[in-house]
Amino acid sequence: MTDPFRLDGKRALVTGANTGIGQAIALGLARAGAHVLAAGRSSLDATMARLAAEGLEGEPFPLALDDPAAAAARLAAAEPLDILVNNAGIIRRADSVAFTEADWDDVIDVNLKAVFFLSQAFAKAAFARAAGGAIVNVASLLSFQGGIRVPSYTAAKHGVAGLTKILANEWAAQGINVNAVAPGYIATSNTEALRADPARSQAILERIPAGRWGEASDIAEAVVFLASPAAAYVHGIVLPVDGGWLAR
Length: 248
Hints:
Elements: E1 11-14, H1 20-31, E2 35-40, H2 45-53, E3 58-62, H3 68-74, E4 83-86, H4 101-128, E5 133-138, H5 151-171, E6 176-183, H6 192-196, H7 198-207, H8 216-227, E7 238-241
Parallel strand pairs: 1-2, 1-4, 2-3, 4-5, 5-6, 6-7
Helix pairs in contact: 1-8, 3-4, 4-5
């Protein structure tokens, strides 16, 4: 009997796969049997080294998302793809009253506009060869909450949740599963300052029913599930992987 959680023979592209959550997702998909294209703007050497150390299939795929149209066109070089994980993202912090148009546009382009146009390019290619596939977007707790001093990031992550639903509505019947994961507080370099602050770290941990910071692998395993045949009837969800943060 075929294991519905396996991805053998599948080709998966993961954006922002050079570090942190994206790197963990690339490793998780490869461990499940997929051939992974690790996409990113900066060096992918560390991810390639980790894949090679485990004897896993993968290759680097240089990709910049600050020009979403160019990134979507570049996706053609990765085809055929079975799985697309839109993980890459950036953040800018400032009071909303002082937030600049440049910081707004930079974040929206990478975190929202690129997600749509990469997904569109993926779907066009899949439809052209009469194939299905899976798209997994990386949303955020700020797809549900407002946050503070991150207006463009919050708007983009709310947008990712909405895109996940509309694309699922349009593409589910054509064999493409579109879903998202919403990471909680994960122990990566992005949260290093928070974890190093005893008061802030304690306040965060007190809010998390699981009583610990998440690991990047926690997100990766959820992505593997949503990309696998086991999730064939799962469409349009935004799955919090947050240790219970939103339930508190």
